[in-house]
Design goal:
This protein is mainly alpha-helical. The chain is built from eight helices and two strands. It starts with 5 loop residues before the first helix and ends with a strand.
Length: about 170
């Protein structure tokens, strides 16, 4: 949300899509593993080890593209900070007792309905998304894609909108 402040928005080299993916990736992997009943990936994907490894892998894959890799890093770190203190931050270097729920959905619904802090944060997050959609007039998929992939200040990746009918990604 801070990156929607006009002064910050103009100066920051934030790749919004990478920031969003980074902020969601620990839960995307963890919850997918849990729903597939493989195990809980929380120990691995909510740790500093994952933060460091995923950043360096992405940095290498993007050939040193700082706006993409650092935005991803900022997203993952933000996710972990918001999940504190209930995450295994230093796993596998420190052992943690992890609760594994075979059917997590009822537990999540119960938490959402009974935990005031969770309710406040979920409603706040939804209101932030509505604000960003309204403020930036993101009423179509094309507008959303354009918003998420705006040019980085160094010109390493940008989007060209041609006749508002299709989108072309251009890389230097």
């Amino acid at each position: 949300m801070i990156f929607e402040i006009p002064r910050v928005k103009q100066k920051a080299k934030i790749h919004r899509l990478s920031l969003i993916i980074g902020s969601a990736i620990p839960d995307i992997i963890d919850k997918s593993m849990m729903f597939l009943r493989l195990s809980s990936g929380r120990a691995y994907f909510h740790s500093l080890l994952f933060v460091i490894l995923s950043f360096f892998v992405l940095f290498a894959l993007t050939k040193g593209n700082k706006p993409i890799s650092f935005s991803f890093l900022l997203g993952v770190v933000s996710h972990l900070l918001l999940d504190l203190p209930d995450i295994p931050l230093f796993y596998p270097f420190i052992a943690y007792d992890m609760d594994y729920t075979h059917d997590p959905f009822p537990a999540w619904i119960n938490t959402l309905l009974t935990n005031l802090i969770v309710q406040i944060t979920e409603i706040t997050g939804a209101l932030m998304i509505v604000y960003i959609i309204y403020k930036n007039e993101l009423y179509s998929m094309e507008a959303i894609v354009h918003y998420l992939t705006l040019p980085s200040k160094d010109g390493s990746q940008f989007i060209e909108l041609e006749n508002k009918s299709h989108i072309t990604i251009v890389e230097d």
